[in-house]
Amino acid sequence: MADNKNQHFVPRVHLRPFTVNGEGLAINLFNLDRMKAIPNAPVRNQCSGDYFYGQNKLLENAINFIEDPYGPIVRHLSDGGAVGSAVKVVLKRFIYLQYLRTEAASLKASEMALALQDVPGSDLPVPTVKEASKEAVQAAMLNYKDTMRIVDDLTLCIARNRSDLPFFTSDDPAILTNRLHIQRPRKGRPSFGVKTAGAIFFLPLSPSLCAILYDGAVYTSGHRAHWIDIDRHQDIEALNAHQVLGCWANVYFREWGDRDTIASQVEAGKPGRPATRQTVTQAVLEKSDDWGEYYAVRKPTDIRNGEKVLVHVATNHPAPSTWPSFLRFRSNAHAYSNDTGAGLTRRWCLEQGFVQGSGYRKISV
Fold first, then answer.
1. Which domain of life is it from (predicted)?
2. 25 part of a folded domain
3. What percent of the chain clears pLDDT 90, i.e. is strictly above it?
4. Which residue, 9, 28, 49, 229, is the most exposed by fewest CB within 10 angstroms?
């Protein structure tokens, strides 16, 4: 059995730099549902749940193995330390782990599973949302060891905040987005994931530091030894906006005096949050012949018991109104495609077997 009943899906080591006086005990938060700032919330009650990862001690130990170096790395960077190979490995592993394990991520996965229960005539067992969420995040954690290298090719850049506007974090802080997909869409590519070309991750490390992972074949940042200094408010706001767009309910900040500024940023970003996190499409088999099966999209109310149904669940990614000015498209941006629904991917994902299929070729994007 796991030793720690109250398991944090956003670890306290990540929240600590954002806590009051950096002491790790209390933290200021802004709740998006109530549009209200709340001072001095106990950190122990934030982003946690009883046995969120289950009662597998080996799994808990594996998570701690990734978490333990994170705090020292953030302190090292806060002191202006070099971004060496150890820093890159720890941050890439931590960002990907954090992306997989938050409550928001588990709820997204569980909603996909629960969508299958809505098919008329389905006799699949129906778990509660809480049960489905825990099962989803536990499955993701168990899969982590086999997929953690999927982000190894991404370029790491540490944005150093030289403005008077702080970074803040949230209850879903490791944000996956894709400027290529959003600004240069391709027909028939409704969504994107970690293996998609143009992937970008944002993770605030402290009020003055933000880690960025990006596809170096698509973007350039002009960093020097993995550092870039930012003094433009617009760039800080662009990075903070992703926390507002991607969080589940709360954003967290250190200084109570910043609450009005935080409220303004939330107010500006909140309209860009998708109304629903997934779009569920159901299609019914209409005919089959020697060439294959043909399905037609129908409303759930038009589906009869016993019909063969395909269910497609697509994630609705928010589209930010602005992007950091320093993260630009390369003049020779490229990706790999085989002109199928698999979409665009990166060379690394092909070489390492994270993407299956044949006929991939390099294309300009």
1. Bacteria
2. yes
3. 56
4. 229
Closest CA to 77 of 136, 157, 195: 157
Q: What is the mean pLDDT of residues 196-219?
A: 98
Q: Which amino acid is at 8?
A: H
What sign results for the dihedral spanned by CA atoms 117, 145, 94, 66? positive
Stated pTM of the model: 0.85
Name the DSSP letter for residue 99. H
Distance CA 335, CA 316 (A): 23
pLDDT band per the 50, 70, 90 thresholds, residue 129: low
What stretches of 154-277 show up as alpha helix (H) in DSSP?
A: 179-183, 233-246, 259-269
Q: Residue 348: what residue type?
A: W
- Residue 139 neighbours by CB under 8 Å, 6+ apart: 109
Residue 2, in any domain of the structure: no
> Which pLDDT band holds residue 131 (cuts at 50, 70, 90)?
low
**Rounded Cα distance, 12 and 22, in Å:** 11
Range of the domain at 292: 280-312
Tell me the pLDDT tens digit for each residue of 14-40.
Answer: 999 999 999 999 999 999 999 999 999
Phi, psi angle pair for 327, to nearest 5°: -100, 95
Nearest to 229, CA basis, from 213, 208, 214: 208
Has residue 180 been placed in a domain? yes
How many angstroms separate the CA atoms of 237 and 323, rounded?
9
Same domain, 225 and 330: yes
208-238 burial: b if 16+ Cβ within 10 Å, else e: bbbbbbbbbbbbbbebeebebebeeeebbbb
Q: Could you tell me the sign of the dihedral formed by the alpha carbons of 218, 223, 225, 229, in that order?
A: negative
**In a shared domain, residues 194 and 292:** no
pLDDT digits (tens, 9 = 90+) for 297-343: 888 777 777 788 877 777 788 889 999 999 999 999 999 999 887 88
Token code pair at residue 355:
């993407």
